[in-house]
Amino acid sequence: EDGLVLGIHPSVSELFPPSKLREELGDAPVVVEGMDGDADTDGLDGVVTFTYSEAFLDADLQWIHCVLAGVDAFPLDDLERAGIRLTNSSGVHGDAVGDTVLGYLLQFARRLHVYRDNEPERTWRYPDWHETFTLSGETVCVVGLGTLGQGVTSRAQGVGMDVAGVRRTPTPIPSVDDLYTPDALTEAVADARFVVLTVPLSERTRDLVGADELAAMRDDAYLVNVARGGVVDQDALVDALEAGEIAGAALDVFEEEPLPDDSPLWELENVIVTPHAAGATRDYAGRVAALIRENLTRIRDGDSLANQVV
Ligand code: NAD
């Protein structure tokens, strides 16, 4: 049997060289072709892509694999109507994002970002006694306990933090000490030194953290968003940061990306801005290829797909 013909969309190169994916898929039951553009879909059964294009709807595709975990940019209803299955890359980012989040927490606790900021001026300044702390014994509240969330909770537990989590079904998770349901979000964040957002962006999670939730947080608390910009009301966040209602934020995702030059977030000393790179790792292509291989086998065997969204 000759297998499927899979196109690699040019946008994949935003995450890793498409040649890497081709190489990793080399001996899978598939013919892999590089696409020249959105509409270069002739003869393709499936597409691997970072971005969505309307041209996919008109093509004769049966499957789209998105190399991101979050597929909020894809029109799920349209794809369903067109009979195109959509799979995402959830499951691959737990280690990379978990490490990044632990890094943010350590920076805030140990003030590493401040020393780095002081280097251009050759400023040797020892911190005030109350500015530094250790993570052990501090509480982190992780909102959304999927791949990313558990990548964070297991690391937080490893450094001796108290771990709270927000989850729709209150099934216990070994690395989480206290579970809350989404209706108790303000209660869940109230005691935490760090609040970490790891939920998908959906109608239910849009602006999940707004003025009320920020007000419920401690004034020495830090917000970490590695989910999607739309999960936080960004204007309310800027207000809370400027008013000192919370101590700071580490943000990897924004309402508009790249973050515009005139955003006040660039200027705030207590904000760490990273360029939607929390999940970046040299292992990315290999991990995505493993997912695609799995689904190629499932398609061949007529089984349901892994990570299927539509
Ligand atoms: P996942 O599907 O493994 O986990 C998401 C979890 O959130 C699930 O357990 C789900 O039940 C839960 N959830 C959904 N709505 C909720 C709500 N209202 N309250 C509480 N929990 C809720 O996905 P993942 O791989 O962990 O990724 C999560 C999201 O993070 C993605 O959708 C994507 O938007 C984002 N992401 C960002 C990066 C980055 O580089 N910054 C990388 C990967 C993923």
Description of the structure:
The mean pLDDT is 96. This protein is of the alpha/beta class and 310 residues long. The longest helix is centred in the last third of the chain and has 18 residues. Nicotinamide-adenine-dinucleotide binds next to helix 6.
What key phrases describe this protein's structure?
310 residues, alpha/beta, seven-stranded parallel β-sheet, five-stranded parallel β-sheet, 10 helices, 12 strands, 16% strand, elongated, binds nicotinamide-adenine-dinucleotide
Outline the secondary-structure elements:
Layout: E1 4-8, H1 18-24, E2 30-34, E3 46-49, H2 55-58, E4 63-66, H3 76-81, E5 85-87, H4 94-110, H5 112-118, E6 139-143, H6 147-158, E7 162-166, E8 178-180, H7 185-190, E9 194-197, H8 211-216, E10 222-225, H9 234-242, E11 248-251, E12 271-273, H10 284-301
Parallel strand pairs: 1-2, 1-3, 3-4, 4-5, 6-7, 6-9, 7-8, 9-10, 10-11, 11-12
Helix pairs in contact: 1-10, 4-6
This protein binds nicotinamide-adenine-dinucleotide (NAD).
The site of nicotinamide-adenine-dinucleotide has 30 residues, from helix 6.
Summarize the structure.
This protein has 310 residues and is of the alpha/beta class. Helices cover 30% and strands 16% of the residues.
Helix content: 25-40%
Which structural class do the helices and strands define? alpha/beta
Q: What share of residues are in beta strands?
A: 15-25%
Shape: elongated
Mean pLDDT: 96
Bound compounds: nicotinamide-adenine-dinucleotide
Detail the poorly predicted runs: none
From the N-terminal CA to the C-terminal CA, the straight-line distance is: 27 Å
Oligomer: single chain
Radius of gyration, in Å, reads: 21 Å
Major sheet details = 7 strands, parallel
The ordered string of helix (H) and strand (E) elements is EHEEHEHEHHEHEEHEHEHEEH
How many helices? The count is 10
Strands of the biggest beta sheet: in what spatial order?
Answer: 8-7-6-9-10-11-12
Task: Say how many strands there are.
Answer: 12
